[in-house]
Amino acid sequence: MIPKEKAKELVDKYYNLFSVELENTIDYREAKQCALIAVDEILDKDGYNNNYWQAVKQEIEKL
Fold it and tell me: Which of 17-26, 31-40, 48-57 has the lowest mean pLDDT?
């Protein structure tokens, strides 16, 4: 999956989690912040393709 697709997928997952499953409203900006936190956690771990996840982070910021 290319970084742009992964970024959208992550943000949408957080947005849907809070909006549908938890019956709570979340703004798209808040969903982006959740996704950015998740990506930052991945980047902090060793052994991951940091170039890919950096690109995902940049795409999330563009959304």
Answer: 17-26
